[in-house]
Every structure is written in C-alpha cells, then in structure tokens.
Design goal:
Layout: H1 7-37, E1 46-49, E2 54-56, E3 60-63, E4 71-74, E5 78-80, E6 85-89, E7 94-97, E8 118-123, E9 127-136, E10 139-148, E11 153-155, H2 158-165, H3 169-177, H4 184-208
Antiparallel strand pairs: 1-2, 1-6, 3-4, 4-5, 6-7, 7-8, 8-9, 9-10, 10-11
Helix pairs in contact: 3-4
Length: 209
Amino acid sequence: MKKTVPAILILFLFVASFCACSSSKEAIVERKVALANSKITESELFVQFYDGTIKSYSSLQLVTGIYKSPHLLADGKLKIFPGEILAYQNKKHFAVSAAGFSYGGHKSNLAVETLPGFAVRIAAGKLNVYVKKYLNNSRVVDEFFLQEGNGQILVYTPDLMDALIKNNPEALDFFNNNRNKMKLNKQLKNTARIFNDTYFMAKASKKRN
C-alpha cells in the first residue's frame, strides 16, 4: 500500500533504582524498534479515509494537548480527526481504528502515542500484533490484538495465539515456554517475529523450487 540510613541499604536502593531505570530504558528502546519495524514502508506517510481513499502527505504529525482535540496535522496545515479515518502511518508507526475490529475490546479516549481509539501495530507480517491503550482505575493499560494476514483483528487471548501459530512449532514453543517469563508485549512481538520469519523463508523456498 502506498499512497519510553545504613550504607548497605543505600547501596541496595541505588542498585534497585539503577536496574529499574535500565529496564525501563530497555523497554522504551524495544518499543521504538517494534514501532519502526511495523510500518508498511520506511518513507510513506498516508491516511486511509472511511470512503477508502488513501492520501499521502509529506508530513503527518500527531497533535495532542490541553484544550486540544487530538488530531493529525498533515503537511503542517490540514487537520484530520479520528472519526474521519480508518488508518494512518506517520514517521513513528502504523495505526488502525479499533472501531473496525471484530471485537473492539475496552473503549478508550486516550491519546497516548496515537489517536484515541486507535491501535498501533508492533509486529507486521503474516501475523500482525496491535496494541491499544485504555484507562483502568486511573492506570494506563495495554490491550493487545492479533490478526492473521488481512483477516479480522481480534482481541488477544493465549488460546487465540495458540490457534494462529499451531502449525509453526518454533513459534508455538517460544510462546508457550515464555509465558510469565517476559512482559507480554515482548512475548507477543518475538513470537510474531519467529512466526513471520519462518513463514517468509518457507514461502521463499517454495518459489525457488
């Protein structure tokens, strides 16, 4: 498609703080890499409107703030609001409106990282993974969705992931062996990467033969 006290106690607190900071920085870096890799192309900036029209722009910026309705600013002048579009891609990520999902999950008006009610793709290929943020008791929570190819986008459950990757032993083993061992976003992203890489290599091998 075109167009992130006793001396021993002080030392402990310092080490704990350092580890937490390092872990946080690592998560931010992983998130940025995932978003960059989930884009359809490296350079194309576009918006897909509800009528199916796809328009490309030279710049596409997410605008949020107090007393501002979250929107995209295209080419520095054109305001595009969430209710007008199905999907968009800017320099940071590709995102789709959760209103079009088969099951939309929790409703969200948060404009964190993307437009409110939109989900950002963090893994792309034969198996796509999306994440949407919503508010749960004053806490921002990630909700994940899965999509096989261009099929329906469904809210994530372990059983759904098992069903989608059941024919890929490597991805299935990784997913099940790492439950509760790593953060869910990293587990899903890496499972999708293994699945997509294996699928791509198998497809390329068939073409050669």
